[in-house]
Amino acid sequence: MHASVWKHRKPLIHSRKALAEGQLTVGFIGGSITDARPRHNWPEPVTAWLVEKFPQARIIVENAAIGATGSELAVFRAKRDLIDRGCHLVFIDYAVNDYGEPSDKRKRSREGLVRKLLAEDGRDVVLVHTFMQDMFAVMNEGGMPDSIAELEELADQYGTGSVWMGLYALEEVRKGRMRWEEWLPDGLHPTHRGSLSYGQSVIAFLEKELLVESAVPDTTIVREHVLPAPLHHQHWGESVLLPLAEVQTSGPWVIRRWPYYEWIDRVLETAAIGAKLAFTFEGRGLSLGFDFGKKSAEFRYRIDGGDWIRVSRDRPDWCGDDGWYRACYLGEELLSGVHRFELEVTHGDRPECRGTNFRLAHIGIIR
Questions:
Q1: Helices first, then strands: H and E counts in the chain
Q2: How many other CB atoms sit within 10 Å of the CB of residue 261?
Q3: How far apart are alpha carbons 258 and 263 in whole angstroms?
Q4: Which region holds residue 331: left if phi is over 0, alpha if psi is between -120 and 50, else beta?
Q5: How many Å from the N-terminal Cα to the C-terminal Cα in the chain?
Q6: Which terminus of the chain has a lower count of CB atoms within 10 Å, N or C?
Q7: Phi–psi pair at 144, nearest 5 degrees
Q8: Directed axis angle between helix 192-206 and helix 43-53, to 10°?
Q9: How far is Cα 66 from Cα 68, in angstroms, rounded to an integer?
Q10: Which of 167, 186, 84, 70 is CA-nearest to residue 128?
């Protein structure tokens, strides 16, 4: 197997310690390839292996992956869905879902996510790289797609392990162990067989990390926990959420507990065209999160009394009427400091815009 499938950097000392103490909480975050809802994705065989190999320990799974989302959303979800849930080991999967983002932006959001997860001692992180058809030409020539190369650079900087699951599966196809249509019938989403292949690559990584006695670290040595210097000085590691209750509104608005989507606690909601909101924030940019779909409204906004900017988001065929936890990046070109944000709800005024539901799930402030 190609040597670059697995990179063992710093040992999984926190995972070993948790297993020895009788309880390991494993977190997953990524897109549809990692999402728990299909019930056959690669975290399932990995979880089954952990349960089999460590019967003396309670294995707790916190799968926070959401289809059609990237690291931009993950930065703002990390605390609620992984850190506050006590994860000792977190797998990050964003090689595919960040693929279409500008390189500089995905570097900032990914590094912010890693720094948040590693900010406090007690957690191991492993980067895993899945596959999409657009990566084939580069990989078939022995190369590494840019999205993955950037993740590997990040892993080197922070000493996190990595598993190139996509390369492992491609090698299985090349060796005749698995047919392409068993792996990726649509060029992106694995079937049960493809998910098993991804899972087996991670299991091989964990076998060396958790079962090989020579890999046991000396836990008697006390090491100071210090994060490495950042690769990107504008990483999102200091990003925060603004409470919805701090938003000023004009028109018929309500804050609701959101029972329709498990990843969203509450939304600030209206269906009235012309309804407005405003808030003050301290930072250099914004990323808003929505429960979005074909029945969603659009909006226009301005910052610090500048020109109004109209937002018009695409609504792919696979997009439902709602239920897509979608991030909306409003940029980070502002000078660090206090700014005023204003928004007005609008109709999309296009055939594919079939409603005016405006459901703001979070306000992410980039610092």
A1: 9, 17
A2: 16
A3: 9
A4: left
A5: 42
A6: N
A7: -125, 120
A8: 40
A9: 7
A10: 167
Q: Map tokens 């990179």 to a residue.
A: 7
Element (H, E) at 328: strand 324-329
Q: Give dist(CA 68, CA 40) in Å, integer.
A: 17
Q: Is the dihedral of CA 332, 111, 150, 40 positive or negative?
A: negative
CATH number of 240-366: 2.60.120.260
Amino acid sitting at position 282: E
What's the pLDDT at 225? 86
Residue 306 has phi, psi (to 5 degrees) of: -80, -165
Greater confidence, 155 or 217?
A: 155
- Fold agreement between 3-215 and 240-366: no
The token duo for 182 is 């068993």
Question: Three-state DSSP class for 318?
Answer: coil
Check pLDDT > 60 for residue 176: yes
- The gap from C-alpha 137 to its chain's centroid, in whole angstroms, comes to 25
Residue type, 250: S
Q: Which CATH number fits domain 3-215: 3.30.450.40, 1.10.599.10, 3.40.50.300, 3.40.50.1110?
A: 3.40.50.1110
CA distance 130 to 65: 13
